[in-house]
Amino acid sequence: MKKAKNCLFISAILILLSIPITIYSAEIVWPPPPEDAKIAFVQSFSTPEDLKIKKSVFKKIWEFIIGEDVENRVVKPYGVFSADEKIYITDSSSRRIHIFDINKKKYTFIDSISKDMPFKSPIGVVVDNKENIYVSDTIIGKIFVFDQKGKIQKEIGGEGILTRPVGIAINPVNNYLYVVDTAANKARVFSLDGKPIFEFGQRGKKDGEFNFPTNIAIDKDGNIYICDTLNFRVQIFSKDGKFIGKFGKVGNRIGEFSKPKGIAVDSEGHIYVADAMYDVVQIFNQKGELLLVFGGGGSEDGKMWLPAGLYIDKEDKIYLADSYNNRVQVFKYLKGKGQ
User: How would you classify the pairing of strands 260-265 and 317-322?
Assistant: First the structure.
């Protein structure tokens, strides 16, 4: 009897060993096994400590005396950008820009434009190739430019120029700053020194028209992708603002939109759109055909609650502002897997 049980146990082990296991089987991936994974969850973070950024001895002593600085925690993130192992996050609740320097294991922040002028509603963020930080404040109606120490360098916009700037991005082809002016239903384009270059769009539903657009992404070829939020679609333009295409419609099925917010493009031209109502990110090809959906409502790793901004870096890491979960989540496009 004992011999028979041993044989049965050995047979079970051999069967288990014969089952193919991929490197992603223990991770959170989309689509789930047995299909080839395309998107993998990497991590989520809310505090410097989540990224192994330790507090200095002085900081620990100071917090022991006056209490912990809870604003070092991401509260309600909206915009996110990453370059050179630094992650920049706009926080509309604490009204600051969190800066996480992964290489130097350092956390800093910008919480005011000048000594007597705090942010009112920082939303968009982007960094140029000189490491200047551009931040849109949708209530003040300007773009503010800072150096890495948080010192103000210049202002872009103002009365009669920008109304309610939200999404911002720098085009790698012409090195212009593109700003989505939500209340004006336009995209406005500036040189990096703040000179207006041109604009495109107006209120409407036709091709090239907008209904309260919000966020923007630009691909490596300079093409512009704008979330035309209340037209429930994505519109694509050339770097010169000429209409190229569109996709999407209002609805409650996958491939449709209810509240499209964040938008980003990976290295292969796939278009990612975060829908704040459905708590998912939908991925489309250049024809607007749905390829994959990931996320879902919840607070566990990989789940989302009112997602906002999206950004994809050169290594195809996907940064998501998971606004009501008070965190940023990082995913990875598994380029070439299963191809």
Answer: unpaired
Question: Smallest Cα–Cα separation from 315: which of 82, 26, 7, 98?
Answer: 82
**Amino acid in the structure at residue 69:** D
DSSP conformation letters of 28-55 = -EESPTTSPP-EEEEEEESSGGGGT-PP
Strand partners, 86: 83, 101
- The alpha helices in the chain, defined as continuous H runs, are 2-18, 57-66
Contact 132, 146 (CB under 8 A): yes
Long-range contacts of 130-139 (CB under 8 A, 24+ apart): 131/84, 132/192, 133/88, 133/97, 134/168, 134/170, 134/177, 135/90, 135/97, 135/110, 136/79, 136/165, 136/166, 136/167, 136/168, 136/179, 137/113, 137/165, 138/164, 138/165, 138/166, 138/182
Instruction: List the strands of the sheet with 260-265, edge to edge.
Output: 260-265, 271-275, 280-284, 290-295
Q: Which tens digit of pLDDT belongs to each residue from 68-110?
A: 555 689 999 999 999 999 999 999 999 999 999 999 999 999 9
Residue 185 and residue 203 in contact, taking contact as beta carbons nearer than 8 Å: yes
Q: What confidence tens digit (pLDDT) does each residue in 14-66 have?
A: 333 333 333 333 489 999 999 999 999 999 999 999 998 875 544 444 444 44
Could you tell me if 118 and 135 are in contact, meaning their C-beta atoms sit under 8 angstroms apart? no
Question: Is 333 within 8 Å of 266 (Cβ atoms)?
Answer: yes
Q: Which two tokens stand for residue 56?
A: 């200095």
